[in-house]
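Changelog note: in this version the structure field was regenerated for every chain. One regenerated record is shown below for reference.
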Amino acid sequence: MRWKNRNIRAVADMICGNVDHFPYRTGRLISEFFEDCGLSLRHDGSTRRDWVARRLHEILSVQHQPDILPVVFQSVLSNLLDRSEAQPGDPTRQKALAVLNAVLNAEGWLAFADPQGGLHLHRLPAARNGADAAQLALYLDRCSEDEFLQNLLLPVFRCLGFQRVTVAGHRDKALEYGKDVWMKFVLPTQHVLYFGIQAKKGRIDAAGRSARGASNIAEILNQALMMLGHEIFDPELNRRVLVDHAFVVAGGEITKQARNWLGERLDASRRSQLMFIAREDILALCAATRMPTPQRDAG
C-alpha cells in the first residue's frame, strides 16, 4: 500500500506532537509509543519526523491490498487517539480526530471513535466522487429541517449501527425537552448507551444575533442541556433512562467560536457528553455508509 509522502509526513507530525491537539514526544517517548503498538522500534537520534515517516512507510509497505490497512498501522492510529493523552480543550479528542481525518480522507479512509474511545476505520467508496459530493451538498442547501432529519440523518445513523432511532413528536414541542431524535447503541459487552440528536439544518455560530439560516449556540446549549437532563422511555426495556451523550448536528458549519463558547460554559463532564457533527462530517458519513443522495419531498 502506497500513501502520498506528504500524508505520511502529516501522520508522523501527529505522532511527534508537532501539531495542535497531540502531545509532544521526545525520541524516547516516540520509542515508547511504538512499543505500545507492539513494535520494537528505537529512535536513533535523527530528525524525529523523518525517522517516524520512514517507519510508517515500512509498516504500510507490508500490505498490498488497497482496501485493507495493515493491522499494525491501525494499532498506530488507535494509539495516536488514546484518550489518556487528551490535550487541554479537547477532552474527548474530537479535535485530534478531525486533524487525523483530514489526512485519512485524502487517502480514501475515514476514522470514527466509539463512545469508549476505540477507533474504527472505514474505506470511503470511490463511487462518491466530486459530483456526488456536490449533489449531496446541494441537497443540504435546499432541504427543509424535517427533510434533513428524516431523509438524511436517520438513515445514516441506522447504517452506523444505532438502534431504535426515534423522532421526538413534533406535535407538542413543549414535550420534546430539546430532543429531535433519541437512539441507542449496544456495545459488544451488551451494555447500552443512549444518544440524543439536536439537529439544525444550517450554520451554528456564536454571534449575538444569528444571520438568516443560522442558529445561535446559546439556543443549542439550552436544548442540549434539556436533552441530557430529562428521561426517555425505552419500550424494549419498559423503563425510563437518561441520555448519555448528545450529538449537535448542523447541515452547515459549526464555527470555531461556537465550539469555544460552548466549551467555556460547560464543565469537563458535560463537555464529554456533547459531540459535534458538521457538514463536512455528514458528507464523510454518507460516503462511508454508501448512502445515496436523498430526493426532496414533493411540494
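Spot check on this record: The radius of gyration is 21 Å. The chain has two domains: 5-123, 130-288.
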